[in-house]
């Protein structure tokens, strides 16, 4: 066995594990801190705040008597409040009986606190996940900025074309005689699709106060800006910055040409020539059939290699207002929530494959892939995963936060909580459902194509 040959794979595995642990730990810490801090504000005492499960690696007590600990298995966490028997907030009968005659101590337990305090404490975990996602998406939007109006070249990308006269700072007035609409004009979104598909275009620009015509590359080249995790392109080794110059022996210069050939392939293997830092490299990849969400909430089956493209140049940007950045954060979070619910619905009714549901292995692979593409991609992925974790915890399944909220809603209507026996039975059913879902998702990771 070639031990040295295994070192790159081993290094990649370690990187994937580290990225997964970091992403999950951040999300879990925020989720559980939401439970803890709102519980504390509501007068409920926390006995234990644990990041991870299993053997304890480190622990310490704060001045309020809460034990903070880090455990060996970083696959979740929990806050154990006074009166809880376990991490799922089952009632500790003995502990509750011991404080039953002391109203003050009873008030500080999870099961003796007012209904509003218990509901707020349980809901806080998912809410904190959503808030973190909104803040991350908003911060990224603020950092990246919005496209400057009029359309202005920020920086030319490294492309194989030679003799290009377009320069950074040029304000683009027209392309091949077609006037560029204002960024705020609804027609701007479809404008790039009307530009003639030619390898070199004539750009009318304003440079240093003077209008002039210069040559520039096709505005949407077959450029790789991002490689999607678990895609054909990722498996083949494509990298951000690559430019696909030929596919199946046919020279291309437009992203639309690449898309046309990929979609017509029906999943057959493709031979690509890729320009990377001045060299032409051969790649072979087999596109995947994927279910893509549509604006109306349905899904469309498409053939993709898993890359995101972009313009031949980085556009000059300017910071948005804080309100606009916050709106973007909320919109992105809401889009993930609605898309996830729609996807789950389509899986249940059989319109799309259940292989779209990833388990821990798939999430870990995605964590490593996003981390390898830079800090911004990794942080963006954490925000996406945080939204998903918050949404999952709101499902009305006993043992999850959503299940507890259903119990509290019943208590509010019936004026009494469900019986302890009913709760034990429902919690057992809930834990069985959660474990079954985890095993099913793990099976997808291992056996889905």
What does this structure look like?
- This protein is α+β, with helices and mostly antiparallel strands and 449 residues long.
- 45% of the residues lie in helices and 23% in strands.
- α1 crosses α10 (375-393) and α9 runs antiparallel to α10.
- Residues 1-11 have low confidence and may be disordered.
Descriptive terms for the model:
single chain, 449 residues, 4-stranded antiparallel beta sheet, 12 helices, elongated
Give a topology summary.
Layout: H1 3-41, E1 46-61, E2 67-81, H2 93-99, H3 103-107, H4 115-144, E3 146-147, E4 153-156, E5 171-175, E6 178-179, H5 188-191, E7 200-207, E8 210-217, E9 226-227, H6 232-236, E10 243-247, E11 250-251, H7 255-264, E12 270-276, E13 279-285, E14 288-293, E15 299-304, E16 307-308, E17 313-315, E18 317-318, H8 322-348, H9 360-372, H10 375-393, H11 401-414, H12 420-447
Antiparallel strand pairs: 1-2, 3-18, 4-17, 5-6, 5-7, 7-8, 9-16, 10-11, 10-12, 12-13, 14-15
Counting copies of identical and different chains, the oligomeric state is single chain
Placed side by side, the strands forming the largest sheet appear as 6-5-7-8
Radius of gyration: 27 Å
Average of per-residue pLDDT values: 91
What is the string of SSEs from the N terminus onward? Answer: HEEHHHEEEEHEEEHEEHEEEEEEEHHHHH
Major beta-sheet overview: 4 strands, antiparallel
Helix content: 40-55%
Number of strands: 18
Task: Please tally the helical runs, counting DSSP H or I stretches of 4 or more residues.
Answer: 12
**Runs with pLDDT <50, length 5+?**
1-11
The separation of the N and C termini measures 28 Å
Global structural class: alpha+beta
- Estimate the strand proportion: 15-25%
The outline comes out as elongated
């Amino acid at each position: 066995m070639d031990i040295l040959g295994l070192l790159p794979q081993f290094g990649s595995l370690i990187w994937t594990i580290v990225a997964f642990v970091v992403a999950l730990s951040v999300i879990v810490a925020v989720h559980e801190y939401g439970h803890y801090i709102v519980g504390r504000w509501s007068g409920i005492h926390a006995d234990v705040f644990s990041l991870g499960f299993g053997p304890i690696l480190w622990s310490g007590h704060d001045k309020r008597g809460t034990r903070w600990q880090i455990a060996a298995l970083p696959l979740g966490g929990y806050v154990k409040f006074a009166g809880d028997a376990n991490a799922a907030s089952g009632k500790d009968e003995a502990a509750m009986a011991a404080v039953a005659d002391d109203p003050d101590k009873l008030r500080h337990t999870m099961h003796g606190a007012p209904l509003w305090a218990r509901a707020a404490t349980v809901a806080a975990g998912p809410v904190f996940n959503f808030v973190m996602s909104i803040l991350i998406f908003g911060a990224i939007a603020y950092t990246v900025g919005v496209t400057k109006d009029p359309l202005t070249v920020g920086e030319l990308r490294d492309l194989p074309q030679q003799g290009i006269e377009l320069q950074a700072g040029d304000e683009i007035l027209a392309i091949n005689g077609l006037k560029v609409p204002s960024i705020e004009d609804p027609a701007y979104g479809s404008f790039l699709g009307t530009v003639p598909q030619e390898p070199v275009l004539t750009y009318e620009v304003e440079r240093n106060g003077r209008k002039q015509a210069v040559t520039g590359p096709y505005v949407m080249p077959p450029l790789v800006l991002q490689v999607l995790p678990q895609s054909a392109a990722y498996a083949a080794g494509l990298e951000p910055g690559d430019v696909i110059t030929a596919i199946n022996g046919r020279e291309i210069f437009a992203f639309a040409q690449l898309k046309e050939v990929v979609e017509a392939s029906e999943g057959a293997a493709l031979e690509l020539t890729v320009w990377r830092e001045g060299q032409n490299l051969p790649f072979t990849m087999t596109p995947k059939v994927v279910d893509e969400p549509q604006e109306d909430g349905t899904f469309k089956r498409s053939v993709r290699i898993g890359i995101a493209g972009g313009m031949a140049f980085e556009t000059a940007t300017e910071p948005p207002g804080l309100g606009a950045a916050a709106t973007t954060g909320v919109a992105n979070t809401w889009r993930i929530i609605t898309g996830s619910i729609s996807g789950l619905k389509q899986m249940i009714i059989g319109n799309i494959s259940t292989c779209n549901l990833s388990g821990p292995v798939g999430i870990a692979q995605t964590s490593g892939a996003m981390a390898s593409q830079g800090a911004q991609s990794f942080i963006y992925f954490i925000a996406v995963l945080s939204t998903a974790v918050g949404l999952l915890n709101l499902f009305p399944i006993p043992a999850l936060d959503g299940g507890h909220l259903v119990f509290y809603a019943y208590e509010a209507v019936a004026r009494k909580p469900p019986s302890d026996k009913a709760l034990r039975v429902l919690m057992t059913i809930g834990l069985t459902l959660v474990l079954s879902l985890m095993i099913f998702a793990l099976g997808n990771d291992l056996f889905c194509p």
